[in-house]
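Structure tokens please, single chain.
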Amino acid sequence: PVMEGKSVLFKKFAGVNCIDLCVDCPDKDKLIELVQQLAPSFGGINLEDIQGPDCFYVEDRLKDIMPVPVFHDDQHGTAIVCLAGLINALKIAKKDIADIKIVCNGAGAAGIACMKLIQVYGAKKDNCFICDTKGVIYPGRPKGMNDFK
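Here you go.
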């Protein structure tokens, strides 16, 4: 029911007709091929529930090859809502984003996307920290890293 609900939200708030199309394709390259083959039928693609770090690879590759917009909801939908909450908190606290320290507990698709968007909005990179199951992520950390962390 989650995907059907999102379809309703797209229609209600953006006037966009959409359908949920669920596929069982654990191979990221086969998924890319499948979505590419569906491109002529759709004006945009909203990806959902692709685990990190595969989600970054799938989205980047599809953005390169697709003639329609590609959006990964787990990353960008969460990041937009997170930034909206942060903007409101900053207004209430009368603080500037460049002056605060931000810690994100979780380095999956949503956590990384949130931190990227928060930095685009104006947070200083040196004031942003992401933690995962191995601790704080930092350049050169030997354990638990991938290309996207």
